[in-house]
Amino acid sequence: MKEEVRVGVAAVILREGRVLLGERIGSHGAYTWATPGGHLELGESIEECAQRETFEETGLVVNTFKKLSFTNDVFEQHNKRYVTLFVVTCCSSSEPQFIEPDKCMQWKWFELDKLPEPLFLPLANFLKESVNLRDFNF
Q1: Which CATH number fits the domain that encloses residue 108?
Q2: Selection from 53, 28, 22, 58 nearest residue 38 by Cα
Q3: Tag placement on the chain: N or C end, fewer CB within 10 Å?
Q4: Structure pTM?
């Protein structure tokens, strides 16, 4: 059987030196912390995917993006492979809503130097790179 590679988009939402993370449940990466994000749909831009997934998962509206990096993520236990594209954005006023209780237990803002464990594999791989999220201003 041929291995399928999926494309995921991760929206790194920053606010006042903090990043928004949700505790995943119900799929690969269950009980890890991740940014909002999901599968890139056919005909959709990376930014449109980040905007759609963020709204579907948190109710937050984001519309200013900067491209960050990508990761190559192998979920051996689930026989899945993703290339995850990371974008950074901000949301200045609203708080995230608990919209998909079957996919996420909670949303929380975390200081960049006090991230929870364990992190979702793509996010952990992304943070191993030399990207400093403090360098991004909106």
Answers
A1: 3.90.79.10
A2: 53
A3: N
A4: 0.92
